[in-house]
Input
Amino acid sequence: MNDFQNHKFRKVLKDLFATADELQAQMADTRAHCKQIEEVMIAIRKNYPAASRSRVLPKFPLVADEAANDGQ
Output
């Protein structure tokens, strides 16, 4: 039984290392996307007074909407 668990563990590790390059590429894409989001959020914060005067940003309701998993 121990040999089977050892074999299964080695197979999982081998599969993880086989996809490591693909996962690193996905992580780089995710980091770039997060950087773009960060830049947009900074721009929104800097321009908020002007945007709120021209009604570009939506009015926020006083009561928060329920999240999809609030009822669970």
